[in-house]
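As a warm-up, study this chain.
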Amino acid sequence: MQTPHFPVPFVKMSGTGNDFILIDHRKPLLAPEAMADFAAQVCRRKFSVGADGLILIEDLSEDSSAADFQWKFFNADGSVAEMCGNGARCAARFAFLQGIAPAEMRFSTLAGIIEASVSGKDVAVKMTDPVGLKMNQRITAESKEYTVHSIDTGVPHAVVFVDDIEQTDVRTLGNLIRHHQAFMPAGTNVNFAQVQGNAIKVRTYERGVEDETLACGTGAAACAIIAALLDQAASPVDIITSGNDQLTIVFDRTEENGKNGLITNVFLKGPAHTIYSGKLDAEALL
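Now compare it with the structure written out below.
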């Protein structure tokens, strides 16, 4: 792996338990071919900084009027993700605190242009409109059949509603559904949801992390939207994460485009915390 010039300044941030390493990469430190390996190395827990993902903030490569900056987002295993809701909220606050963008900003991702608004520690991002809705799929895992709904809220998500979320084996069942042939070849993130009034308790198995994470913004949006289409919730929907933090999903729903309705103007709202800043030494890659 081609290594950067050390030390490399970074900031560690957390969006309701989803943690990320953020680097101001407007002056490039990493060659494109080195980024995936670098991400996988520095995201290792106990051996390096440890995180659910790496975010590189870069200048736009094309029309500078389209947005304030662009990002490159890598999962903990080094794979590229099109979008990450909690990562987007952390990226927005990082960009504001670093003077890269104003409090009301736009930035470019592989999923499209994301709008964000920063107010203190709270950040709201406007998600891309959901696509690829499939309701009531029957999936067999561990010799048991499950009703699974799927939707793409920037990245693909499967949603399974359960009666007792605390007793759900998220790691085992999530891994099986994540790799199920119904979602190949790309695979999917898997959310287990339990409706509690107009709030939803959510636990997520994340593709690329390959484990349960303490929160998932795009997964929270997926669960809120599916619950609304099943008439089990209505905007705004509070999402209670695995880390017992709260995210809020706000959206518009119309009934004119099909029996399930049309969901637009999806916003993800919640805190984004700066944990610490530091400098990566070369031994972070050992």
